[in-house]
Amino acid sequence: MKKLLLIPLFAFLFTPFESHAQTSSDDTISNTLGIGPRLGYYKAEDAEEGSFYGGAQIRARLGRVVGIEGAIDYRTAQEYDLGEYSVDVRQIPVTASALLFLPVSEHFQPYGVAGLGAYYDMLDFSEEAENLPGIEDDHTVDFGYHLGFGLELPFNKNTALNVDYRYIFLDPGSDSFGDVEEADFSGNVLTVGLMFYM
C-alpha cells in the first residue's frame, strides 16, 4: 500500500523536470538549415599585417550535436615582405566544415570545427619585382585545412550569433614565390556570423 502511495508522489516530483527537458529540446536549434552573413579577421603567420573579410555561410544542423557548414569569403590584401620585394595577397576562400556541438543549454552551445578549403589567391607584386625573372602577378588556387572551436548563441529557434576561432594550415602552391619560405599563408582566423535558420 505504501508503494502505491509513492507512485503519485514520484510522478508529481519528476513532472516539472520532464516538462522542462521537453521544452528545452524543442527550443534547441536542430534538424534545420540556416544562412547568414559573417565578418572576420585573418592574420597569416608571415604577413606583415592582418586583414578583414566578409562573406556568407550556410549551416545545416543535423540533430542537436552534429552540423555542417559551407562558407565563401573575400579577404582584403595582406602584405608579405619577401626581401628584395613584397607581394599583396587577396583571397577568396571556399570552405566546408564539420561542426560538433555541445548543447549545454538552448542559449549556449560551444562547438568544435574541422574542415577543408579551396583558396583562390590573387598575388600583386611590388614594383621592385618587375624586372626579376619568373616573378609576375599571378592567380592561383591552393588547398588547406582548418581546426578550431566556437560558440553559438541562439536568440530563439530561428536566429543565432556564432563566434569562432580557427587555425588555417595553408602553404601557397604558386611558383611565383620561388623558394622563398616567408610566403606561408597558415594563420589565425576569427569569425563572427549571424545565422537565420528556417
UniProtKB/TrEMBL annotation:
Keywords: Signal. The keyword Signal applies. The keyword Signal applies. It holds the Pfam family OMP_b-brl. Residues 27-195 form the Outer membrane protein beta-barrel domain. Residues 1-21 form the signal peptide. This is Opacity protein. It comes from Fodinibius roseus.
